[in-house]
Design goal:
This protein has 340 residues and is an alpha+beta fold. It is built from ten helices and 15 strands.
Length: 340
């Protein structure tokens, strides 16, 4: 009887050690668990998937909402209908933005001679021959697409590519830029496809400034923010002409006087500027971006900056105004004013 009690005592102690003490798992098990966690995050955080089935592209590496490079405009609009918005870009072409109700299934398409030469999305509508999709880890993207390029060459000028937040790959006459979310384990969050023909239309680092390009960058940023919010299961924002005017004046001031700050040269804060323009708000926020080549890169950079990201995804905001200006070096300034 004593031996049985002693045996039970040791069994209880052993079980206690199993419960309390951490057990180091083999590396391969930790890798499996990490992959599982990544997949679970993707499933739980990315419910906004295209209503139609995303098919593996037949002719290109990637398809966005089942649209591939070199498709005709007629083929695209047979699938998606007419564009919700048409804006100018730095390449001298247009971005046609397609989405369903409340910015779902959002993609941007650019045409040259009525054929797709540019594609972008920041939503879970990505399919590929390599099984890359929204939420794919950066390491896996590189494993499947190869080594990213480090420069673009144009007219014997080299433009260096050195940014940990995205990779650019060049294959089959297409520049593919994969944007990663550093606040979500560096998983793929957006993708931009640009043909050689479209890329070569941009002769320098920046496009030629114009009033049309300013307005287009403003509207593109507004659309990108709403598409991002829908991807994160948030309500969309309404466009504010008043807040856009306030934002535009601050961008103009920064561009003309060559500074970059939330506090202007007169010491006014974003809240001061909104109040001076008689804009009522209970809560407000401001995002600034400077020097990115276009609205896509500006938005992606803001999403990887925690404070700016919080403004983009804050549930209490209901309105957004965007203002863009260019300095004497053609560099754009973005100001986003959020209010409730």
């Amino acid at each position: 009887m004593f031996n049985i009690r002693k045996l039970l005592f040791y069994i209880i102690i052993f079980l206690g050690l199993i419960i309390v003490l951490p057990i180091k798992e083999p590396d391969f098990m930790m890798h499996v668990q990490q992959q599982a966690r990544t997949k679970v995050d993707a499933w739980t955080n990315n419910d906004n998937i295209a209503n139609k089935e995303l098919k593996i592209p037949s002719k290109q590496e990637f398809a966005l909402n089942n649209v591939q490079m070199n498709m005709t405009k007629a083929q695209v609009e047979n699938k998606l209908g007419k564009a919700q918005r048409i804006t100018t870009n730095e390449y001298g072409t247009k971005w046609y933005s397609y989405y369903t109700k409340d910015y779902q299934d959002f993609i941007m398409v650019s045409y040259i001679d009525s054929k797709v030469n540019g594609l972008y999305t920041n939503q879970n509508v990505i399919s590929s021959q390599s099984k890359i999709k929204y939420g794919t880890p950066k390491e896996l993207v590189r494993q499947r697409l190869g080594k990213p390029i480090t420069e673009k060459r144009k007219d014997n000028v080299r433009y260096e590519i050195d940014n940990k937040e995205y990779d650019t790959f060049h294959k089959h006459n297409i520049y593919t830029t994969a944007f990663y979310d550093k606040h979500s384990k560096n998983n793929l969050t957006s993708i931009l496809l640009v043909s050689n023909q479209m890329e070569n239309r941009l002769r320098g680092q920046y496009g030629p400034p114009s009033d049309e390009l300013k307005k287009s960058f403003e509207l593109q940023n507004f659309d990108l923010v709403n598409a991002e919010r829908v991807q994160h299961n948030l309500s969309t924002l309404s466009y504010s002409d008043e807040a856009s005017n306030t934002a535009r004046k601050h961008s103009d001031d920064m561009a003309q006087h060559h500074y970059f700050d939330h506090t202007d040269l007169k010491g006014n804060s974003p809240f001061d500027r909104l109040k001076a323009d008689n804009i009522n708000f209970n809560a407000a926020g401001e995002n600034l971006a400077y020097g990115q080549v276009d609205s896509i890169y500006a938005h992606e950079g803001l999403m990887n900056s925690l404070g700016h990201r919080k403004n983009i995804l804050r549930t209490s905001y209901h309105k957004l105004g965007v203002g863009v200006s260019f300095n004497s070096n053609k560099q754009p300034y973005w100001t986003e004013n959020y209010t409730n």
